[in-house]
Design brief:
Elements lengths: L1 E6 L3 H14 L3 E7 H7 L7 E7 L1 H10 L9 E7 L5 E6 L2 H4 L6 H21 E4 L2
Length: 132
């Protein structure tokens, strides 16, 4: 399921707060992809958009022990992006429903559900859920 939240903050504030929350929750940021910068590199223009790739290697490894294909879903990702009206959003693709298709037991799926709940709580702290 894809969920989107409208941010309470401006772009730079959101970046700082999101990065701080990810670290506060015991996760690491593995990469940040600047889609708008990449668009410029090929002569195109795009509204500001950053993809955060992050997670907790322990949690991810526990799930991948059971089914290595989980590595195509993990690490976690949050996209922060602006629309044409300069509204700022955060989008997250939940992992629980997707991981039901893998060779995971109920305990493993519960871990995935807890991961989703943790991320959703972070997003609620930074914004308001919207239909998008």
């Amino acid at each position: 399921m894809i969920i989107t939240y409208k941010s309470k903050y401006n772009f730079n504030e959101l970046k700082i707060k999101l990065e701080s929350l990810i670290i506060k929750k015991g996760m690491g940021i593995f990469s940040v992809i600047d889609h708008s910068k990449n668009a410029v590199s090929v002569g195109m223009k795009m509204n500001r958009s950053l993809l955060y790739i992050f997670g907790n290697p322990r949690s991810g490894t526990l799930l991948m022990y059971k089914d290595m294909r989980v590595g195509v879903i993990l690490p976690l990702k949050i996209l922060i992006w602006e629309d044409d009206n300069k509204n700022l959003f955060m989008t997250y693709y939940t992992i629980y429903e997707t991981l039901k298709n893998f060779k995971l037991n109920n305990e493993d799926l519960e871990l995935a559900k807890n991961i989703d709940n943790n991320i959703i709580e972070m997003l609620k702290e930074l914004g308001i859920e919207v239909e998008h």
